[in-house]
């Protein structure tokens, strides 16, 4: 069986597949790690349970997952030895990893070397891998990188206008994020439209607590919002998005803040949370805005304006747009946010049908208005399946032998 582990900044998601990936045997999440209101969900088929689970860290969350998978009551594993391979989402591969790789000690060290690029995510990703290596000592582990899909972004889009040597010597450039999701969703969108992906120019809006907009031309990422770290681009749940770097100098020099304090602000106290003063949860913000909370109304306006503006920029960068695709928690579930984003961009050919938009979850993925020149789709992401596909491909005997000789073969 193939186990897929996706350690986020405050969650651990997992899926257990049959070896041929034909069926998901079990799935679950340990959510709100480090928070008193933490919980765990575990599903086997349509049967599931949710319970309070206050976990201090990702080590504890891994233990909760193992307990669920091995439970005599609702587990699906007789013993850890039934796992034949484990795939992991890794957020940032820096300039080292250009594709998915089998994990060994050298890869683990390289992951630690990349950890500073994504301080909210990479440490959690590493914990998941190290725990899996201990729990399943006979099974290979595969790391699948969010940054890999964006390695096709050309220099004109990924370079910053800083001294060139900083980029070449220190890897300071735009790397991108949510690449595994964007790869899966763009392929699925092309299938839904029954058109070759090579003939499509699309913008994928991965809207969750983390947000990525990706310009995908001919199946390749050509520009993306998140850059060197993971807080740039548009405003996110707790992350600031783009702002003038002079603000950092001001906070340090004029307000006496330390760089650690500034980093805390940029990653954990900004975005929707900072604007609304209420929450980073879009559902809570929408509810409060509807009741007249002016800061929540402002947070919605900033969020949707920045996304709408970026869609226009990416359409210009690609010389046109054939499809706009919404995915991830907010993108898939919030008809209000989709409607706000699509308002006033009819000049691009983007028009949605309000009825189809309201019924998109579980309904027709194509929410375009009749006669719209651009297809607007709602496509549920499935990062775990994309990771599983790479895991199976890399653990085939012949591939595994090559990787043992050169564990970074896919990255070179």
From TrEMBL:
Residues of the site described as Transition state stabilizer: 178, 239
One of the record's GO cellular component terms: cytoplasm
UniProt keyword Cytoplasm present: yes
Residues given in the record as Mg(2+) binding sites: 6, 383
CDD domains: ASKHA_NBD_AcK_PK (cd24010)
Reaction catalyzed: acetate + ATP = acetyl phosphate + ADP
GO molecular function, one term: acetate kinase activity
Binding site for ATP: 13, 206-210, 281-283, 329-333
Catalytic-site annotation from UniProt: 146 (proton donor/acceptor)
Pathway involvement of the protein, from the record: Metabolic intermediate biosynthesis; acetyl-CoA biosynthesis; acetyl-CoA from acetate: step 1/2
Cofactor note: Mg(2+). Can also accept Mn(2+).
UniProt EC number: 2.7.2.1
Gene3D superfamilies given in the database record: 3.30.420.40
One of the protein's GO biological processes: acetate metabolic process
Keywords: ATP-binding, Cytoplasm, Kinase, Magnesium, Metal-binding, Nucleotide-binding, Transferase
Protein residues bound to substrate: 89
Top-tier EC class: transferase
Subunit structure: Homodimer.
Role, per record: Catalyzes the formation of acetyl phosphate from acetate and ATP. Can also catalyze the reverse reaction.
NCBIfam families in UniProt: ackA
Family named by the database record: Belongs to the acetokinase family.
Protein name (record): Acetate kinase
């Amino acid at each position: 069986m193939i186990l897929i582990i996706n350690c986020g900044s405050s969650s651990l998601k997992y899926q257990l597949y049959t070896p041929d990936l034909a069926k998901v045997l079990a799935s679950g999440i340990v959510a709100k790690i480090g928070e008193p209101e933490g919980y765990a969900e575990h599903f086997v088929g349509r049967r599931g349970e949710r319970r309070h689970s206050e976990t201090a860290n990702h080590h504890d969350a891994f233990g909760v997952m193992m307990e669920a998978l091995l439970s005599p009551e609702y587990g699906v594993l007789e013993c850890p030895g039934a796992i034949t391979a484990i795939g992991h989402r890794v957020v940032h591969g820096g300039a080292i990893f250009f594709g998915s790789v089998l994990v060994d000690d050298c890869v683990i060290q390289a992951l630690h070397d990349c950890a500073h690029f994504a301080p909210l995510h990479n440490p959690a990703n590493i914990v998941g891998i190290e725990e899996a290596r201990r729990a399943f000592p006979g099974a290979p582990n595969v790391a699948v990188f969010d940054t890999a899909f964006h390695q096709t972004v050309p220099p004109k889009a990924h370079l910053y206008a800083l001294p060139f040597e900083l980029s070449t010597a220190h890897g300071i450039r735009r790397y991108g994020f949510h690449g595994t999701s964007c790869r899966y969703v763009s392929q699925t969108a092309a299938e839904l439209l029954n058109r070759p992906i090579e003939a499509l120019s699309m913008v994928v809006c991965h809207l969750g607590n983390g947000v990525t907009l990706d310009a995908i031309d001919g199946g390749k990422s050509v520009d993306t919002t998140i850059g060197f770290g993971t807080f740039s681009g548009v405003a996110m749940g707790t992350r600031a998005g783009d702002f003038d770097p002079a603000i950092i100098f001001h906070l340090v020099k004029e307000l006496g803040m330390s760089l650690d304090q500034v980093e805390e602000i940029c990653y954990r106290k900004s975005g929707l949370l900072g604007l609304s003063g209420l929450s980073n949860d879009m559902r809570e913000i929408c509810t409060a805005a509807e009741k007249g909370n002016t800061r929540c109304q402002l947070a919605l306006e900033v969020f949707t304006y920045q996304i709408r503006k970026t869609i226009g920029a990416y359409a210009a960068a690609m010389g046109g747009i054939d499809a706009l695709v919404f995915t991830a928690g907010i993108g898939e579930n919030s008809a209000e946010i989709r409607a706000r984003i699509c308002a006033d961009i009819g000049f691009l050919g983007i028009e949605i049908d309000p009825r189809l938009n309201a019924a998109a979850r579980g309904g027709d993925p194509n929410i375009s208005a009749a006669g719209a020149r651009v297809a607007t789709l709602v496509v549920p992401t499935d990062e775990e399946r994309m990771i599983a596909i790479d895991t199976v491909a890399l653990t085939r005997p012949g591939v595994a032998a090559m990787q043992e000789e050169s564990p970074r073969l896919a990255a070179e």
